[in-house]
Amino acid sequence: MLWVILGVCVGGALGSLFRFLISGTLQAKLGTNFPVGTLTVNLVGAFLIGFLFGAIPEKLISSPHLRALLITGFLGGFTTFSAFAYESVALLKEGNLKHFFLYVFITNAFGVILTLLGYRIGREV
């Protein structure tokens, strides 16, 4: 269990560093107000977690330590959007359309609403 925890920690640190470097570099180079850096990281992370989700069980990686490092750690640090996408796909694979749509709606709608709420409260403190 200790090696799994260490894998999550190391992967999370590396994922966060890569997110910071890639997102910041793209944003600075493109000089736009649109969050292209974050969007790129989120989309790349979604692709990578989908790829690993599909490849890990049977083909590439059987080690729980490496899965913890790559999926929970690296991609969790790289973008939490990848976890959202993974969980959404899992609901679809289970055929649970009701929970899929509810999860997607609540995550997006309330995520934005709560971010706005937190921002407004933070500005008043």
Give your account of this protein's structure:
With 125 residues, the chain is mainly α. The protein has helices at 2-30, 36-55, 64-78, 80-93, 97-124. The protein is globular. The model has no long low-confidence stretch (mean pLDDT 87).
Task: From the structure above, extract its key features.
5 helices, 0% strand, single chain, 125 residues, mainly alpha
Radius of gyration: 17 Å
Order of H and E elements: HHHHH
Low-pLDDT regions: none
Binned, the helix content reads: over 70%
Helix count, per DSSP? 5
**Major β-sheet annotation:** none
Average pLDDT number:
87
**Helix/strand structural class:** mainly alpha
- Tell me, briefly, the overall form: globular
Write the layout of secondary structure elements.
Layout: H1 2-30, H2 36-55, H3 64-78, H4 80-93, H5 97-124
In summary, what is this structure?
The protein is mostly helical and 125 residues long.
